[in-house]
Amino acid sequence: MRLTQFYNLSLLVVISISLFLLNNCTSGKNLKLSKVEFTSTSIPNNVENLKEPYTRSSIRQTFENGSTKETRLKYNVLFRSGDSIGQGIAGEIQNINGQTIQTGIAENGTQNFKRKSIFPSGPDGNALISIPGFKSPKVSGNPLFLVTHFEHHRWTENSNPQKPPFNAKNDLPMSIGLTLLDQNPLTGKLNAVDTQTIDSSSTYGIRYPCAASLSPWNTHLGGEEGEPNAKWFERNPLPSMNIFLNSFNKTVKEGGANPYAYGFPIEIFVNDQGVADIKKRYAMGRISLELPLVMPDEKTVYLTDDAKDGIRTMFIADKPRDLSSGTLYAAKWLQNPDRNGGTAHLRWIKLGHSKEKEIRELIDQRIVFSDIFDSLSSGTSNTTREISNTFRPIFVYQGFTDKSYKPVGESKINHIKVKSGMEKAAAFLETRRYSAYLGATTEFTKMEGQALNKKDKKIYTAISSAEKGMLKGKHGERFQDDISLDGNPKDLSCGIIYESDLAGKVFDQLGNPIESEWIAINMNALILGKENMKKSKDKCDVDAIANPDNLKFSESMQTLFIGEDSSGNHLADFLWAYSVDSKKLTRILISPKSSEPSGLQATTNYNGHTYIMTNFQRGIFPENFAKKQSSEKANKLVSETDLRGIVGYLGPIPFQPSGEKDNQ
Fold it and tell me: What is this structure's pTM?
């Protein structure tokens, strides 16, 4: 080879290497991420009939040197409820003995479901977890675990085709799944290789598990929504959980399911052998719990009450990373301006201190409502603040109850008195009633998701629909009117996301210091839904949120992700990305027909990849659809419709460091 040829070849190699390095630098490798934007997904013409999750969005990452990288978003299905994965079945519902449940009690307490295996149509809370030291021969790449709540099963065929199908939403115990995932080290793609139903026999079973978060110490934290009304179920069997316990048709005193065993935070630990251990955190109070969210001090936890005439609570653990004992508080809303969603200062009312062992012992002893309270007959009407020196009027959501076992969950006047020595039982087993008894605000409607912005020291809270007691002039029989929002009721019914500042040196209602630097001191409306003024079937504006439910915040992206549960206010539910820096709201995904996005989790740097976990709950038919046609046709429709819930994620997105790691 001539010298000139060698020189030219060497120069070509140097130029190629330089271009390769330059390309990697300008694509953001080893550069700090400075800004994230999402492009919008337009609404397709067939939005009412989408069969799969739909996105046309991209994520655009800008780095400290001004270079950018754009990645097209793709939704990947991991599995659907009922799928066989390895040795298990996704969403399989089991009884206390680990046997598969194949039938159940219908809404009216008399009809059976069609006899076949039942798999929940509503996957919800997710926690993607990496366990250091775990290895498995089933995994060729990086092993990860996904803990998934299966919240409910909806429409079910009747065993008698001449009778209508039923909405089986509250008629079965539910399950939580642990799925082993295989992560491709190069592409980041996830593949489900095995699954199992987590054994919940030590907790009396799981009822209606809802949203979830990942704790700073790498555990799954979830909640049980729609707690049973213990006053009603003191004298009536609790069918769904009796199915789990094999204690059919028995009341609590007869050895049946105790309503006080449901409505608590759920914590799940996964050890380095891949074995899950589940605990209910009885010292954190019992409400219609959407999810708990832990603050960076690893002691302060906020809990949302998904109810009409509900409350907002806060738990301060005695020790970091230990939720087995602590002090429980409920919020008092002190309103300022009432327009545009309103703003308020928060005052915290101390409910009590407890250890979960104490509360579990009460449940094991089969405590009932009348052991805790004296009460006057339902519907007693009196406009005075107190009927006597002892009975106090309260107006709260009472948990689901009805002779037909439907999730009525009505709110009405009750006059109650806490029995001597039962204050702790009242605080931790009847948290909403006791909060009202002490004067906390009980007018929140559908308080659902929440998310933490650690950098700005703020917490975001979703009110899915502001209605009834939250509206000005609509407090009705309620004995207090703390929340009084003014404005177009149709705007307010589309929902509000509030932003709260977090601070220290805060005192409770009695002037005692609250031992935390992460106390929510206010609630200020940040993002508002609004009525659709255009000619279309959407009741809420499609360029604004409609009934926000799931919330998750990404520190690395400085983005709040918002999943809707609009119940038809949008023809299809949307997933939004809201930049807290630019204040821009962007639609990034559209749900399939008759489904809602759920199980949000914003993750960062799982072996170099980022994921936006989101599931889809299926089977959300109009409640009266069976009445519009014959029972035979309605059962056939249920049989032929794909009601399997979807578990999956947006991504993988190449991870770039930004200084903060997400843990939500």
Answer: 0.92
